[in-house]
Amino acid sequence: MHTSHTSGAALSRRNFVALAATAAASAGLALSGCSSKNDDVEAASMKIGTMQTEDSLPFWVAEQKGLYGEHGTGVEIVTFQSAQELSTAFAAGEIDGAMTDIMVSASLVASGIDLNLEWVTLGATPEQGRFGIQTSPDSGVKSLADLAGKGIGVGSNTVPEYVMDKLMEAAGVADADIVNEEIKKLPVRYESMANNQVAAAALPGSLLALGEANGMVTLADDTQGVGNVSQSVFAVRSAWLVSGAKALEGVRAAWNDAVAAIEADPESFRQLLVEKANLPGIVADTYPISSYPEAALPTAEMVDPILDWMKGKGYLQANVAFDASTGALQAK
Predict the structure, then answer these.
(1) What's the 3-state SS for the chain?
(2) How confident is the model at residue 43 (pLDDT cuts 50, 70, 90)?
């Protein structure tokens, strides 16, 4: 597989490195001054940040169908090219909400930005989206057990790393035998695996599909056997919620309407998905369009194990806690 085929590969859901602490520092935060709305005026609009990822399809469908206006809310969707840019904009109050993951959210909170996890955008069930470990057919690796002591391409403090650890644990591989090869850029990680520069790679669904279309071997994924271990979430700045609660309700209603529209006729939104998530051409016609969950708070069973994992890995210095009854994620 040539690099040209992967340079436009979708940055699928939750492919965010936890650069939030750095981003917060570079944004020069002062919590009292970083609200993007005047707290004395009720916000009638919302600015949402995302990356090129399938998780945001309902946001784009709602935009295409004019659903935000139907629910009395103006929405601007801003697409970012890197996780650090997205985190920096969120920390600085340049966007009000972000399609992100629990790792990035917790890192932002640890850096001093209180936020709410308003709903799960993908991953309410294990079947919604997938992450997995893939290898080249020439690697000699036939199972996860064969990877003990061999380098796996991954990004630290990310959903793929968390899923990788869970898959390797389920396969009986000891933590000491899991060898992380830090490769943050997903296309580079994929090519390193395909060219046998690493024994395997931890990848999101779009790149797993790309690999499978080109003869790569998926050793395991998280859609079955390890529980529901990967979610993307819609995170909203707590400071914005002071004035933005009504606007958020309009966004929530538009999301639910878009979810219903996708469920009724998913193929009618394939071109939108290909365009917005920048799917590789080789899988554009076949990539499965996910079902999406109606807006609902993440559960403690989704969030708390990830916070514990981050603390155990040394990724989370502050004591961050999740309130499952409100969605608030705060440093204690």
Answers:
(1) CCHHHCCCCCCCCCCCCCCHHHHHHHCCCCHHHCCCCCCCCCCCEEEEEECCCHHHHHHHHHHHCCHHHHCCCEEEEEECCCHHHHHHHHHCCCCCEEEEEHHHHHHHHHCCCCEEEEEEEECCCCCCCCEEEEECCCCCCCCHHHHCCCEEEECCCCHHHHHHHHHHHHCCCCHHHCEEEECCCHHHHHHHHHCCCCCEEEEEHHHHHHHHHCCCEEEEECCCCCCCCCCEEEEEEHHHHHHHHHHHHHHHHHHHHHHHHHHHCHHHHHHHHHHHHCCCHHHCCCCCCCCCCCCCCCCHHHHHHHHHHHHHHCCCCCCEEECCCCCEEEEC
(2) confident
pTM of the model: 0.85
For residue 114, pLDDT over 50 is answered with: yes
Are residues 46 and 247 in contact, defined by beta-carbon separation less than 8 angstroms? yes
Residue with tokens 């994620």: 329
